[in-house]
Amino acid sequence: MGAPQFARISNNICRGAVGLSRPHETVSMNYSTIAADEWAGQPLTRDEVFWTSKLGHCSFPSRLIQRSTPFEIFQRTSAPSPSEISTIFGDRDFTSADVKFARISDITIDDQLGVCIDRAGRVLHETASIAEAIDPGLANTRALSPQSSRQMVDEPVIHCFHRASPAYGHFIFDCLAPVLLLRDVILSGRAKILFPSFFPAWGPRILSAAGFDIASHVKFITKDVAVCREVILSTAIDSRNCFRPVREICQSLTTLPETVRPSSRKMIYLTRRNQVTYSDRTISNEDEVVRALMKMGFAIIEPGNLAFEEQVSLFHGADIVVAAHGSAFGNLPFSRPRSTLIDLMPTTYINYWSRRNFAPERWALNLTTFFQLNYLLVFCQSHTVEAAAKGASSPIVSTVDIDLLERAVNAAKAFPHPA
Question: What's the pLDDT tens digit per position in 293-308?
C-alpha cells in the first residue's frame, strides 16, 4: 500500500474521551451478547474476509513487543507508590492485542453509540465495551428500540466508530488505522466507511487528507440506526488496538509522513489551551512551564487547532515532544524512531480508570515501545475537583515540577538525535 497524498484541511480536533465517565456503581446488563468471531463462525484468510462476501473472521494474533529504547521515570511526588509503579510500569515490554476482523450480515448499528445488534437481538460484545462506559446497561441504546428510525444500507460497509472515537487518540488507533489497513478494499469500491452523524467535521477532513473521497468512499448514517446487509467489523472497536497496538494494523499509520515535509521545529510543547477538549485536565502553573520551555528553545503548539498534515509534519520533524498526558499522543506514529516523548502525567491519573482492564496509564509506554521512541515520564502532583455534571469524569488539575521537567529535557537532549 502506497502512502496516501494529503489534501489541505482545516482542523479543530477534539481531545480526550467524549462523554466517557468513571462509573461509580455496577449496572446490570439486560441484554445478551455474542462475540464478533463467534457470530461470524468460520475462520477465513484475511483476503477472504476483506475481498470476498464470505461470512467469517480472520485474526491478527497477539505477540510480544519488546522495548528497545530508553524509559525513565522522574518523580518527587509521594504517589504513585513504588509498588504501584512496579505493577503498572515494571514490565517495559507488552503483548499486543489479539484483533479480529469479521464479515457479518444483517446487523443493526446504533448511530450514537456504535452498538451492533443482530437479528436475534444479541449485542455484539466488542461494540458494547465503550458504549457501556457512557450508557451503563445500554439503557438508551436506540438499536434496541423498535421505535427508532431506520436507514437501510445495502452495500458492504466497514464499521469502526464508537462514541469516544471523536477523542483524537481513539480516532487514530480505533478508526483510522483499521481504515488504512482496508484502504485498497475501500478504493476498489468493495466497501464503504460507515460514518456516524455525531462525529465532528474534522473526521471526514482527515479521511480526505488520507486519500479517501468522501462522496465515493463514505456512507453517512442519517437515521437513529443503520440496518446493514453486510458489515466488516474489527474487534479494535473496543480500543484494544489503541492501548496494545498491533503491528500489521498500525504499520499503515507510519506511511502517512512520507508525503509531508518534516517541520524544522525540533523541540515542541503541546499545550491543551484554546482547544476543544472532552477530558478536563489542566496544568495550574502552565505559564511557568511555557516560560521554562521557551527558554530552552521549545516552540509552543496548539495541536487541536492545526490541520492534520501540520500535526504529522510537527511530530515527524521533532526530536523532543513535551506534553501533558492525553490524546495528542495519537500523533506518535508519525514520529521518527529514537525521538523522545516527555509525558507530564498527573499522579491522580494512576488508577483513575479503575474499571478498565487495559491499564490506560501504560498507553504512552506501549506506544513508545511499539514505535521505538525514547520515553521520559514526569509525574506531576495533581488533584481532582468535583465534576460539573452527574456521571461526568472529574477534572484533574496538575502542577508541574519545573526542576524535574528541566532535568527530563536535559536527559532527552543527551540522547542521540533520531535519523
Answer: 999 999 999 998 999 9
